[in-house]
């Protein structure tokens, strides 16, 4: 999996932090091995970086500082460290910063251990363990309660479900393999005829009578509230995602046989290609026809109404991979994926690929959440930066613009997509058709028949 950190987390400790640590070094004098200097027993909210670095001191057998030794850091509890190893300085000090996981009640620990001795170190192998605590989120009023229903299997087809889109709490579309489409009208999920046997990869709409579904073999379908019909003319390829503006323009991202990514635009003049790059593109979303974002392998790219811009080479770099993008308006654009963290590599073991949530604030992409040993696959964004992220092992993470929290999904299956028209009624989907309905307050709940 191709990934890369857009914004490198610094592993350096500030001059102020080091100055405060030096006074603590004396307490370790005369003791061989590794000792904790500072940073233990901190508390913070889920997904946030602790205020102070974790600092250890390595002393030799006579208690003198042992510089030049490599300290390994093992993070437990779902959080992420700024580095997997660091080297002790002349004072015998080494440090990292810790970002907490998201599961309240799970022990947040970091074990530090000497991996390689310094040139003048005769210290025996030793290890110490830091502990931290996740502070419970106080604003539970925005929490969603998730209940499960099951879509029927796709008839005469071993394919899976792919995507879900909600026009309202009682008007929802799900698509999948062999042209399968199910529509929820408030009482049940009814099968709809798509007119195709091609796999449908994504669905999106402007209203319940203006919905688009896309998939393989250049499949683009439109629903007018009564029937699905083909939108012809797109060159052969796999269509991964679709989004449309209020002015009637339709945008899709495609990949061809050599995994090149393309952005196509459809209007009264037909299909025109707007952007090309040498790597695949997976999702697209916009706040208007002059503010559109597309993501995939590499850095996100943006359309300002005139041209598409991104990183070097059109953003096509094997250092990051983003799977979904969504927004609540200009400056509230979020993308989810994973990135290679080159500050967290091991000899012969590769580099860490943390899952990340990034936000475009109108000028730059900023990291909002970084977690090791997770994979984020879908994102929904409401107003005021309310964000719901889904992924591996039934993962649902809810952000309220200030803090993040884990919400129980009741499943260990991978959740591939999340959607909603209002923040009090969201829908999520697994590839085997498990529907999760997240509600707060009083909203109708669907039941599959």
Walk me through the structure.
- The chain has 449 residues and is an all-beta fold.
- It folds into 2 domains: 15-135, Sandwich (Immunoglobulin-like), CATH 2.60.40.10; 140-439, Methylamine Dehydrogenase, Chain H (7 Propeller), CATH 2.130.10.
- The chain is built from 1 helix and 40 strands.
- The strands form 11 sheets. A 5-stranded mixed beta sheet has the order 2-10-9-4-6, with no helix packed on it.
- A hairpin with a 2-residue loop joins strand 12 (161-168) and strand 13 (171-176).
- 48% of the residues are buried.
Q: What is the CATH class designation of the largest domain?
A: Mainly Beta
CATH architecture of the largest domain: 7 Propeller
User: What is the strand content?
Assistant: over 45%
Radius of gyration: 25 Å
User: Could you tell me the number of beta strands?
Assistant: 40
Gap from first CA to last CA: 38 Å
Q: Give the uncertain stretches in residue-range form.
A: 1-30, 443-449
Q: pLDDT average, as an integer?
A: 84
In this structure, how is the largest beta sheet organized? 5 strands, mixed
Please report the number of helical segments.
1
Using the coordinates shown, work out and report the CATH topology of the largest domain: Methylamine Dehydrogenase, Chain H
Proportion of residues in helical segments: under 10%
Determine the structural class based on helices, strands and strand pairing: mainly beta
Can you say what the CATH homologous superfamily of the largest domain is? YVTN repeat-like/Quinoprotein amine dehydrogenase
């Amino acid at each position: 999996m191709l990934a890369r950190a857009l914004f490198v987390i610094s592993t350096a400790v500030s001059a102020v932090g080091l100055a405060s640590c030096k006074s603590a070094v004396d307490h370790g004098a005369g003791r061989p091995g590794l000792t904790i200097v500072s940073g233990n027993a901190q508390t913070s909210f889920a997904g946030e970086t602790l205020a102070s670095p974790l600092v250890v001191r390595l002393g030799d057998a006579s208690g003198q500082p042992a510089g030049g030794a490599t300290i390994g850091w093992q993070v437990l509890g779902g959080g992420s460290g700024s580095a997997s190893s660091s080297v002790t300085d002349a004072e015998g000090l080494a440090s990292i910063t810790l970002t907490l996981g998201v599961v309240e009640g799970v022990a947040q620990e970091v074990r530090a251990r000497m991996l390689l001795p310094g040139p003048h170190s005769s210290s025996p192998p030793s290890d110490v363990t830091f502990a931290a605590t996740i502070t419970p989120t106080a604003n539970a009023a925005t929490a969603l309660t998730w209940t499960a229903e099951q879509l029927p299997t796709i008839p005469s087809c071993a394919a899976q479900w792919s995507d879900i889109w909600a026009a309202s709490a009682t008007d929802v579309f799900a698509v999948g393999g062999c042209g399968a489409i199910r529509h929820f009208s408030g009482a049940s999920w009814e099968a709809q005829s798509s007119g195709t046997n091609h796999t449908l990869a994504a669905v999106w709409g402007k209203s319940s009578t203006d919905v688009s579904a896309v998939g393989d073999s250049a499949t683009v379908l439109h629903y007018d509230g009564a029937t699905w019909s083909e939108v012809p003319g797109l060159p052969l390829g796999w269509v991964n995602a679709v989004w449309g503006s209020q002015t009637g323009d339709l945008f899709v991202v495609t990949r061809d046989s050599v995994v090149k990514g393309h952005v196509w635009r459809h209007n009264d003049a037909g299909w025109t290609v707007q952007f090309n790059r040498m790597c695949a593109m997976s999702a697209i979303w916009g706040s208007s026809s002059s503010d559109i974002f597309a993501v995939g392998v590499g850095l996100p790219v943006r359309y300002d109404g005139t041209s598409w811009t991104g990183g070097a080479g059109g953003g096509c770099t094997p250092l990051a991979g983003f799977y979904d993008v969504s927004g609540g308006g200009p400056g509230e654009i979020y993308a989810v994926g994973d990135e290679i963290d080159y500050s967290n590599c091991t000899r012969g073991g590769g580099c860490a690929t943390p899952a990340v949530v990034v936000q475009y604030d109108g000028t730059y992409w900023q990291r909002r959440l970084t977690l090791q040993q997770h994979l984020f696959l879908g994102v929904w964004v409401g107003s005021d930066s309310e964000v719901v992220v889904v992924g591996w092992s039934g993962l649902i993470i809810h952000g309220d613009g200030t803090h993040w929290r884990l919400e129980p999904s009741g499943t260990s299956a991978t959740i591939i997509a999340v959607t909603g028209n209002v923040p009090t009624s969201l829908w999520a989907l697994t590839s085997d058709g498990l529907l999760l309905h997240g509600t707060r307050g009083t909203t109708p709940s669907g039941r599959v028949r």
